[in-house]
Amino acid sequence: MMKFRFRRQGNDPQREKIKQELFAFNKTVEHGFPHQPCALAFDPQLQLMAVGTKSGAMKIYGSPGVEFTGLHRDAAAVAQIHFLQGQGRLLSLLDDNTLHLWELGGASRDRGGAKSEGVVYLEEKRNYSLLGRPGLESCSASRVTVLLLLRSCDLLCVGTEGGGIHFLDLPRLSLRDNQSLLLDQVMQSVPEDYRCGKSLGPVESLQEHPKQPGKILIGYSRGLVVLWDLSTCNAEHMFLGKQQLESLVWERSGSSFVSSHSDGGYSVWAVASGNTYTHQPVSSSIPYGPFPCKAINKILWRTIQSGCPVVLYSGGMPRASYGDRHCVTIQQDKQHVTLDFTSRVIDFFTVHTTDLEHDYDDPKALVVLLEEELVVIDLLTTGWPSVPPPYLAPLHSSAITTSCHLDNVPAKLWDRLAAAGNSQGAQPGVRHAHGSWPICGGKNLAPPPRQQELLLTGHEDGTVRFWNVSAVAMTPLYKLSTANVFHTDCDPNDDPLDPTNDPEALQEEEWPPFRKVGCFDPYSDDPRLGIQKISLCKYSCRLVVAGTAGQVIVLGLSDEWSDHTVDVSTVDLLQDREGFTWKGHDRLEPRASPAPFPPGFQPLVLVQALPPASVTSVMLHAEWNLVAFGTSHGFGLFDYHRRTAVLARCTLHPNDSLAMEGPLSRVKSLKKSLRQSFRRIRKSRVSGKKRPIPTPTSKIQEANAALADQEEVAPVQRRIEPRSADDSLSGVVRCLCFADTYLRDGTHHGPTLWAGTNSGSVYAYALEVPGVGSGRGRPGGEGSGCVEAVLGKEIQLMHRAPVVSVCVLDGRGKPLPEPYQASLDLATAPDMTNPHSVLIASEEQLKVFSLPKVGAKTKFKLTAHEGCRVRRVAMVTVCSTAQEDYSETSLVCLTNLGDLHLFNVPALRPQVRYDCIRKEDISGIASCVFTRNGQGFYLISPSEYQRFSLSAKVITEPLCTVELERPLETHISDDAAIPLRANGTHRNQAEGLTEDPQCGLSSPPPLSPLDSPLSMADVSLDTTGELTVEDVRDFLTSVDEVENNLRNITEEDGCSLGVLIT
Q1: pTM strictly above 0.70
Q2: Contact 881, 819 (CB under 8 A)
Q3: Is the CB of residue 621 less than 8 Å from the CB of residue 601?
Q4: Where does the Lethal giant larvae homologue domain lie (predicted)?
Q5: Is the torsion defined by CA of 968, 974, 977, 979 positive or negative?
Q6: Which among 861, 924, 860 is positioned nearest to 894, based on CA atoms?
Q7: HSE of 327 in the Cβ direction (CA atoms, 13 Å)?
Q8: pLDDT per residue over 430-483, tens digit each?
Q9: How far apart are CA 531 and CA 550, in angstroms?
Q10: N or C of the chain: less Cβ packing under 10 Å?
């Protein structure tokens, strides 16, 4: 046999230019709630809020769409943040005892073909490390405990653990020599009987006098409070407290202040002229006494013109009864509310009047930063209700298990979802205010979104949340709960009422007067409720959600309340197959009696797969009224209009006993899988060391290799070990696809169903759908006969690699349109005159087959060329920045190494490659979802999505500005001059990284940090339900696998121009 090899063609300059106009990788914005927040600050002049995290990230928020993000060079936790009010500057204190000065700077950027002027970004300007003074203070004594920024913003007071106070000039961050206030100077003014040989302890609080600049209140841990005059450097007044101090706050007039203590009480002290010492406070109170209480960590005292002052404090709960509660108390005269949260209180502040000309604070809102969410309370409305946040919603209020994206959402569906979301409000028993969002600084310069986009997230508690991701701010739109379809331990209809609306609760006078606030609820009534797959048809308003216990629910959108019983159908995927016994969890018990369903998506039919294993794939075709679903045992097809099962196919291998154990045996299965993986590695190493026996054929190969050495060598390929047919979980159905194409012959097309499994098998069924092609109407129309399914083709991939995706291409090589798109003239009709083809993506390669004969047309061996495995596949359409009417459809692949590969279709020529996710971030790779317009989302923490774009034109990122009292330092940028950040965080910019399509993929871009401020943080691996044993196996054995592949490089394709004899 003779093979002819030709030299590769050089790069086409015209094609390279087109690629640069089409593709550009950008990490744009982080949606959701910051992971592990630990610091909070507010600028009342600019109306901006700052949040610091344990990973060193700095995030600034204003009005919706106004966001700035920065990242400290060292991954240390942010201990404190303070704004230089009105200047767009802020100070951060890290737990490594370093101070950092940040600034909002201006830039002009050209992005997506449009130039944006006045854009502001966040960057670090200076830093300072406070070291101990030799002979005076040890390192621990110099540790910073509290910061005070004077109103003049030119002086920073730094309190330390050793009791000393240092002063730094701003904004230079330079220490004032010989002006530090040491503990010895303060002790000289303390009465002898108060000293008692005891230290005053660390500086706990520093507060500037509200009316007399230059005077500060210094609170020491032991209880001593000193009013210090900075101009004369002496103690003007001393308040000899005897209880351990936690915090201080001034009353607005400066005539008194309040101190909170470790015994759960607070005291009011009068600042009177004349006496140097005050021994007793004016009043003291332990609100939740007399039994021992926890400390009041922070207290605020806000005056109101129309009534009594408002006292707000965190902590103070009775230690024995409610010591584990996370609370903030609001008191005003006889009104008393204890806000009860489900996560730890980090910090809080009030939005109030700060103008010195006003005599009262008149607070408008209370903002509480919790460990898992942000809660805002309206203080102007009776009852102090909460305000729904337009951003920073806790995505992980229940753990995210799956996600789904929809673009170009029709206006009618959008309005109906918004109306349903508004009608359901928030959680039962929690009242919400209708006032405006109090954090409203900055100006959003981003143009209005071109289309409405939805991100659907499935959660562990059986809920599906709909998020508006059309712009930078990720806003909750609607929440669907599936728990009321089943009998559970906690009936959602029996939720407790709001105590303020319950007369019996009012008569009992519960103390403390708790009120549940916030929506973070990490606990699930039943883990079987978890949502695993979602499919939504935006034109027919049909939704399918599938869960952990084999439940598949078909829902329709309704604008009215409904009380009805949900129809239930079962589909046995084992079909009475002998030798298999399900050892996992039981199915959920459906509710037999009618249940109330609020406006929104309401269940039409429940399809229960048996055995009740977790659903691994689902696909909806609303135009045919069909839903297909797959589990680890097989796949089924259901006609939800006629309520009949069409097909049940078992995909289990005779040795696939692991699939019958269920998720409760996951530890055992993981061990077994890893053991088998290591055995294969050892086997391949041993086989690689064996020397081949010299044969005439091997001599010919040596001659061919010598000839190849004289020519240009093509890319080498790694040898791929075929997978065993009896591998565990080989019957898992990974993907499903509906298509109207040619399967039986080349002249008649019709509905088909495609299913791909973990063992590399693809099943293609020809469907007989009554009414299709003969004027069938909209869903719900009457039709005669039943849907029938006949096996048309069965494909077995050579190496038995799991099938990740199946996509049918029309005669032009384009993906078929979604259901209803062609019939409603919303998309170009598919080409049905030329032959179709099917693109099958496995974990190891991409391959295009012709239809109906299923003959191989072209392929790309991704694992052989790159040593990686495919994890996610999608078809995306990217538009050119130079030509409005030019676009290309490409195939994007995310691999287990976290990089993105783009190929054109159907030729499968590599276009570009980008580094996207760290290969160690298994959870992020498993959670990635692509959009049709070339964007994507993946979890960088349990509560945050990172958004990225592959399109040079479609980019959703913050474009905002802030009016400052100082001039902006403006930079001119063309995306390559100023630091390229995802609005502040480090980002890879790899535009135009291409290579010749015939020679493989481009080389990786220069090494740089992979954007996320959580790159060194602990992120749990159970944030998505799609994390598989294969993901963990790839991560643990990646190093050995690479070494093994490099040893087994073949020389089959190692030659170019010449004649090879084989």
Answers
A1: yes
A2: no
A3: no
A4: 285-385
A5: positive
A6: 924
A7: 28
A8: 444 545 899 999 999 999 999 999 999 999 999 999 999 999 999 999 999 999
A9: 10
A10: N
